[in-house]
Amino acid sequence: MSLPQRLLFCSFFLASQALWAQSLPIEVEAALARAKVPRDAISVLVVDAQAAQPARLSHRTREPANPASVMKLVTTYAALDLLGPGFTWSTPVFVDGSVKDGVLRGNLIIQGQGDPKLVVERLWLLLRRVQGLGIRSITGDIVLDRSAFETTVQDPSEFDGEPLRPYNASPDALLLNYKSVVMTFVPDAANRQARVQFEPPLAGVQMQPTVALAAGACNDYRATLKPDFSDLAHIRFSGHYPVDCGEKIWPVAYVDPASYSARAVEGMWREMGGKLSGKVREGKAAVGLKPAFELTSPTLAEIIRDINKFSNNVMAQQVFLTLALQAGASGGAIRAGTFAGAHEVVNAWWKQRIARGEAAEGVDAPALDNGSGLSRAGRISAQALALLLQTAFRSTLMSELMASLPIAGVDGTLRRSPVKTPGSAHLKTGSLRGVSAVAGYVDGASGRRYVLVAMINHPNAQAARPAIDALIDWTAQDQ
Description:
Layout: H1 3-20, H2 26-35, E1 42-48, E2 57-59, H3 72-83, E3 90-100, E4 103-111, H4 120-132, E5 137-138, E6 142-145, E7 180-188, E8 193-199, E9 206-207, E10 210-214, H5 221-225, E11 227-228, E12 234-237, E13 240-242, E14 248-253, H6 257-271, E15 275-276, E16 280-282, E17 293-296, H7 300-309, H8 313-329, H9 339-353, H10 382-393, H11 398-403, E18 425-432, E19 435-443, E20 449-457, H12 465-476
Parallel strand pairs: 4-5, 4-6, 5-15, 6-16, 9-12, 10-13
Antiparallel strand pairs: 1-2, 1-20, 3-4, 3-17, 7-8, 7-14, 8-10, 11-12, 18-19, 19-20
Helix pairs in contact: 2-12, 3-7, 3-8, 8-9
């Protein structure tokens, strides 16, 4: 495109945006009015996913707004681009001592490298491989090396007053099962009780194996159980479990996250028949010590599906910190997984890969905070998000990013979306108190594919969710 053509296009683009900014679809306006949300509280951009054409709809597109979990799009696409979809995390295990007759005379060291999905099943596999080395008893300690990420002391209740929600878990180089206990309740009508299964077992924590079973509808069964999670050494229930609930699974963050990893490793090791004379403690692997084996994570392409489809905050932060860790491993100045280092990496990537061309002029880079969107400080404009999504659509990574997004009316956080055409949109959702947002791709009835970004920042944002649903339908119905 020649310079005169570019100037003509930019003039047309800006003029069309100014024209469209005067009007929102009638259905969207009506939904905003019902929710008592003013037009200046919403940012909207609908534009062709790949063609350099004027926006179909544009309203307050350059105003930075809190996107909530939609910010995960920046983190996950940056990771796909910088690390590659086949990237995996390794968790090395070291044997520091001699093994004879099933006894390790020395220490076992587990070194975390940021694996976002080191869940119970994979922790069991890791310890089973230790037993495969002929180790049944350890005379020394089990050492947990968490030094790959900066250690941050966070109050899990600080953000929203919900310290027992697993999404409030803090990132960790050795993140085990999201620092959570998964409780499964199974009714046993014959014995008038519900059996309670706990995963993983935690050393030093007594867990109540049954709870009384009672008749009644399954409404707020969690409140009916009357749980007490305040005691580090006990998990108790003083209420009952409604028989109509059937089987239920309830994940809860352990009340003392600092001791969780040690309790989980020791608890599972002993449940598997392993013996330990020492203790589970923190430490570092000696320089030059070679691992006995390494446990490998699922690929990044698989990981981001969990992050985006189910909006997993701590997994997103693990990926964000990994960007800094890998930059250091590649010879950069950053030597550990720190938030400051991750900001530096993503900002440099944004300038190189996203903030290019006339359309990016005057568009600010995102303020990422922790990379997950679980933040009051995160900010990005609709224009910036659209630039990222258009860049991704034109890249070879388009299929991996799109496959990670919830499908409207089908799965993930959009499974219950009331869209008129289920399957017509792949969109990341975002929701905080005072924030409701979506961003991603919508297939129009005409065959065109659009980038859609919508962010509402207002105390009544959740009540205005129907306005976003109406916007998705309006985008899809382009004939």
